[in-house]
Amino acid sequence: MNNDNIKAAKMVTEYLLLLKHEKIGFIGGREDAYVTLDHKEGYCQALGEAGVSVNEQYLVYHDEVFEGGEQAVIELMAKQDPPSAIIVADDLMALGVLRMLQSMSYDVPNDVSVISFNNVLMSELANPPLTTLDIHIFELGFQAAELLREHIQTPDLPAAARW
Known about the structure:
Layout: H1 5-18, E1 24-28, H2 34-49, E2 59-61, H3 66-77, E3 85-88, H4 91-103, E4 113-117, E5 131-133, H5 137-153, H6 159-162
Parallel strand pairs: 1-2, 1-3, 3-4, 4-5
C-alpha cells in the first residue's frame, strides 16, 4: 500500500519542465530509501523523455528534516551553475530549503522554483507558499491501520487476500 512515487516525481519534474526549467535539482532523503529511489527514478524518466541530461551534481541526499533541507540547498546553490528549480523529497525539508534560499537572498519562485511532496498542514504556512504534491498521507495511514487491524483479527489470512 503506497503511492506511485515514480509517477509522482515524474509528474512534478514534467511540471517544472513545462515552466521551462532544465537545470532541476533533486533533494532526496536517505539515498537508499525506497521513496528516494522511486522519486529519483521518476525524475530521471521525465528528464530523459524531455531530452535533458541528468546532471549528477544536482542530486543531493540528506535526512528528511528541516536542517537536511537547509544543508542540501547550500550544497546545490554553491555549484558553479546552480539549478533554477529544485524538487524536494518532503515538505519539512522543503521548509528548510525555503528558509535557506531566503537567507541567501534568492527570490522564490522568481529566482528558484521549489516543489515538494506530502502537502502537510505546515506547508500552508510557508512564506512564500510551498508548491507541494498531495500524496494523501492521512488516507495512506488509515488504510495501513485498517490492514493491521484485519491482520490481527485474522492472522492466517494471506496478505494478498486483504488487498
